[in-house]
Design goal:
Number of strands: 16
Number of helices: 2
Largest sheet: 9 strands, antiparallel
Distance between the termini: 23 Å
Strand content: over 45%
Order of helices and strands: HEEHEEEEEEEEEEEEEE
Length: 239
């Protein structure tokens, strides 16, 4: 992963080294989103036209000014065969990284990360992993929702109140392992890594994530009426 994305931060590279140890990476995709501040100080998505008018790169890490905030989301499938009690074990890994962290002035705003999938695989017990890197240390958010053949979601504070100043979530990595009781039959399943960014509020305590299967895929929702912008990255796996 570090060779594929040499511009990623040292923290993400260290995440990937630990996350994929012993696994073979099969596919990886990344997606970018660029935000700007609106007149109310909220981070709202920029259009491609707005980015081009500024002469910037549409890639999130290519826009690194004090007024624009880029985020990159990664989703990766990796697998191991013959190394466990099951013929195939898949590791679904997702990461995010802000080019510039949002300068929110409160620590109560909540964002989330979701890894969703579809296919006839079971969740390996006690296999979820998470870490969010704040600029003054790491935190390990708990799973808030876990649904077989749908996905797993974590919520975390966009910023945490500090003694002198707030500490911001600069990057993070998440994973879950799913297992197949039979040899690969060549079926194709979808995988998504999605960052959910709440805005127009600084006091949100939960997105109320909900995950479900529908129409041969999965859906991601939330109970809050707060506006949520999603940054999804897609890939596939076989089972």
């Amino acid at each position: 992963m570090a060779k594929l994305f040499p511009d990623a931060s040292p923290k993400l590279k260290e995440d990937w080294k630990k996350m994929y140890d012993g696994y073979t990476i099969v596919s990886v995709t990344k997606a970018d989103m660029i935000y700007k501040k609106d007149e109310n100080g909220n981070l709202v998505p920029m259009t491609v036209q707005e980015v081009e008018q500024q002469g910037g790169d549409v890639g999130a890490l290519g826009v690194g000014s004090n007024s624009n905030y880029g985020i990159t989301v990664y989703i990766t499938t990796a697998k191991v065969t013959g190394g466990s009690s099951y013929p195939t074990e898949w590791l679904l890994g997702g990461s995010f990284e802000w080019a510039n962290h949002p300068d929110v002035d409160e620590g109560n705003s909540v964002d989330a990360f979701v890894i969703g999938w579809y296919g006839g695989l079971a969740i390996k017990a006690n296999s979820t992993s998470s870490v969010v890197h704040y600029n003054d240390g790491d935190k390990y958010p708990a799973v808030v929702t876990l649904t077989p053949n749908a996905g797993v979601g974590w919520e975390f504070n966009e910023a945490v109140d500090g003694f002198w100043s707030n500490s911001y979530a600069e990057s993070g990595s998440f994973s879950i392992k799913i297992i197949n009781s039979t040899s690969d039959a060549g079926n194709i399943g979808n995988v998504i890594g999605q960052y959910n960014h709440s805005y127009e509020t600084k006091t949100l305590t939960s997105l109320g994530l909900s995950l479900s299967t529908s129409g041969g895929g999965f859906s991601i929702g939330w109970s809050t009426t707060t506006k949520v912008n999603t940054v999804p990255a897609y890939t596939t796996y076989t089972y």
